[in-house]
Design a protein that fits this description.
Layout (H helix, E strand, L loop, with lengths): L3 E5 L1 H7 L9 H10 L4 E4 L12 H12 L4 E6 L3 H10 L3 E4 L19 H13 L3 E7 L4 H9 L4 E5 L1 H4 L5 H20 L3 E5 L7 H7 L5 E4 L1 H10 L1 H11 L6
Parallel strand pairs: 1-2, 1-8, 2-3, 3-4, 4-5, 5-6, 6-7, 7-8
Helix pairs in contact: 2-3, 6-8, 10-11
């Protein structure tokens, strides 16, 4: 099965928030992405609402339910009580837990599974009780023990943090070394029964190598590079290009 593409709408929302105006319309671009072949939508509602707003969640939930019932809604965030209540109200198909401090500009590291095992076990149990699949943001450094601890939380998936790999666009040798580590981490997860997602700074150029190394990759969550390409190719064609890069037979 080719990796599914979940389009992260944060960058579109951040552009909208520069003005007190309703455009660009986040739901409109979500609709275009799903019509073009994306399998889902991702958002990361931060406490300061600097891009996705809490009010966007029911709108996007309704978009999927009413027009694209086969698609999935993925909500990312740190498991504060406010965030968990948002998830329980919105009922996404997947919640991706990230260890972000509220002041971070973007996600830039995976969980310390040794330090946060109790928090994560309790959170995973709570979300699973509501019928939500849980994925945990993880560093792709080949640490087998960390992956084992991630599996012990009861989560269904890990999401590999691919930022360092994406940042090596001008250094093929370093990118290849980081890709090996990502692959090792994914293999450890697969052997423990975890599905594997990936996200952060993935592009049409670097996705194919990642897919070749991790052919069982379940999902990629992509926002920044996809939104940048959409300025050149348009949202629909950009989604098709990323779907092809994920190995999907998009015409």
């Amino acid at each position: 099965m080719p990796a599914k593409l979940s389009v992260n709408l944060n960058a579109i929302a951040m552009l909208r928030n520069r003005r007190d105006l309703p455009w660009p319309d986040v739901a409109h671009f979500g609709r275009i992405a799903l019509q073009a072949g994306a399998s889902g939508l991702t958002v990361h509602p931060r406490p300061d609402q600097r891009h996705i707003r809490f009010s966007d969640l029911p709108v996007l939930r309704a978009l999927i339910d009413d027009e694209f019932p086969q698609a999935e809604f993925n909500i990312e965030g740190y498991p504060s009580e406010d965030f968990l209540l948002l998830c329980e109200e919105t009922q996404p198909e997947q919640v991706t837990l990230v260890p972000d401090d509220p002041t971070q500009a973007t996600s830039d590291h995976g969980w310390n599974f040794r330090q946060h095992s109790v928090l994560l076990k309790e959170t995973v149990t709570r979300l699973k009780a509501g019928g939500v699949r849980v994925s945990l943001f993880a560093d792709g450094d080949g640490d087998a023990e960390a992956v084992r601890l991630a599996a012990e939380t009861g989560a269904a998936r890990i999401e590999l943090y691919t930022g360092p790999y994406g940042g090596c666009f001008d250094n093929p040798q370093k990118a290849a070394a980081l890709l090996d580590k990502l692959g090792e981490t994914a293999d450890h997860a697969k052997n423990l029964g975890l599905d594997v997602n990936a996200g952060h700074d993935l592009t049409v150029a670097n996705l194919p190598a990642l897919i070749r190394r991790i052919p069982y990759l379940a999902e990629t969550s992509i926002g920044h590079g996809l939104t940048a390409d959409a300025m050149e190719y348009g949202m629909a064609e950009t989604v098709r290009r990323f779907c092809r890069a994920c190995g999907q037979p998009i015409s």
